Amino acid sequence: MKKSLLTSNVQCLRFFFFGLSMLCSGLSSHAEVFQVFPPQGASENSIQKAIDQAKNGDVIQVFPGTYTENLSLWGKSVVLESKEGPSKTTIKAKDSMKSVVMINDSTIRGFTLTGGAGYPVKSSYGHDYYGGGVYAMGKSTIEDCIIHGNGHGTPKVNAGTFAGGVYAGSSAEVILRNSLLWNNFAWACGGAVLVDHGGRMRIENSTIFGNQSTDFFGHQGGVGMANGGKVEVVNSILWSNSGDEIGAFSGIYSKGAQAIVNYCLIQDEKIANQGKGNLSNVNPGFVNSQDVPGEDGVLGTADDGLRLMKASPAITKADSSEASNLSDKDIAGYQRKQGNGIDAGCYEFGDLKKGKGAPTLDAPKTGPGTPPDPDYKDTIAELKRLLAEKDKQLAHCEKEMDAKNKEVAELTSENDKLQGEVKSLNGKVAGLEKEVASLQSDNQGLQEQVRNLRQDNQNLGHDLATTTENLKE
């Protein structure tokens, strides 16, 4: 039976899911399923209306479309899922200076999330922003999502984001699974992810590529940690993120931070050597890392540039025992486990179960062990990108340095002027001190004369009294 809500675009079906705990632990067996359709007007917040009316344990199913909203699931323990996956269902931040989604003890599944800066917190710079794509608290799960283009466009250089993609803090326990994080930005820490203030995050079968942060108290363009934050990464690809793929915020903020990385393809050799089953210093064998959305311009489809070529070392790299709750489809809807095992990252190499297959480009065969990119085209392009990024940072630093030099010159001039005034005042003070000393000396002379006059007065008084006695006699 359908039940109308505040808008005709949002409808609710009541189902009795006796086995719904298999979908999301802790959900009621009498959950309501809210169905959300694309808004008919720009002012409609269709998904948020469903969230506001849902109760703990309910499921909100979102039909394909682009929804321009900032969602808050604060105080709700629900499942928010798309009907047809992230390539067809996008949530774009309506307010670019907030997180796209804020969740606490909920699950979000199957969306593209873009255009957010993060949850604003007052700071000495005005505001800092946490979690451009997702601000996650409590026991929350983010899966089958594409999180890109977040953290950019904050109002001032020094008022940017912490965690361009996903933020987990304040003892949160977050799972990030089967997701793509690309082209997110953080001014301070964690271009893709930041785990902070005792938070915990487990990253499974995800691809974290091409995210950036500035070099401030360390340089964590991929996954950042701070203030006791801990992260566990398995079966994933971390590649071509600026600075550290995984690293802790520097100084006192790194206390208690910890990273465990296993069965991953990660560019950082030091991190790779600290775990088990990791690979580093090998080309990941992407189809075309210079065109991540592919020819159709849509992420999560067959022509995505971060899909794997046939010779990619990420194929069958994942440990199946670490992927017990993994979806049976990859981020683009391809069947998982098509060969001898599961591939690392959010893309599975192989063909769709139905329809056209994925790209199956072979690496050029110039000898055993040849990487998928023997001409190092991707490497050269990446170095050029990094060089351009450094040039941009250098230009910005030079501009700031010029501004600071101008400010120093103005302050120096003002200081010289004040020093002259101080010197003049010191001269006046010295003159006044001399006058005071002279007056004090004159005062001492006058005090001596007063004492002498008083003594003469006493003597005259005595003489007068004696004379008066004599006259009486």
Question: What's this model, at a glance?
Answer:
The protein is of the alpha/beta class. It has helices spanning 46-53, 269-274, 377-472; strands spanning 2-4, 10-14, 32-36, 59-62, 65-68, 71-72, 79-82, 89-92, 101-104, 107-109, 112-114, 119-123, 126-130, 134-137, 139-143, 146-148, 161-162, 166-168, 173-177, 180-182, 185-186, 193-195, 200-204, 207-209, 212-213, 223-225, 230-234, 237-239, 246-248, 258-262, 265-266.
Account of the 3D structure:
With 473 residues, the chain is α/β, with parallel strands linked by helices. It contains 3 helices and 31 strands. The strands form 5 sheets. An 11-stranded mixed β-sheet has the order 1-2-3-4-7-10-15-19-23-27-30. The model is unreliable at 1-28 and 354-376 (pLDDT under 50).
Please write out the topology.
Blueprint: E1 2-4, E2 10-14, E3 32-36, H1 46-53, E4 59-62, E5 65-68, E6 71-72, E7 79-82, E8 89-92, E9 101-104, E10 107-109, E11 112-114, E12 119-123, E13 126-130, E14 134-137, E15 139-143, E16 146-148, E17 161-162, E18 166-168, E19 173-177, E20 180-182, E21 185-186, E22 193-195, E23 200-204, E24 207-209, E25 212-213, E26 223-225, E27 230-234, E28 237-239, E29 246-248, E30 258-262, E31 265-266, H2 269-274, H3 377-472
Parallel strand pairs: 3-4, 4-7, 5-8, 6-9, 7-10, 8-11, 9-14, 10-15, 11-16, 13-17, 14-18, 15-19, 16-20, 18-22, 19-23, 20-24, 21-25, 22-26, 23-27, 24-28, 26-29, 27-30, 28-31
Antiparallel strand pairs: 1-2, 2-3, 12-13
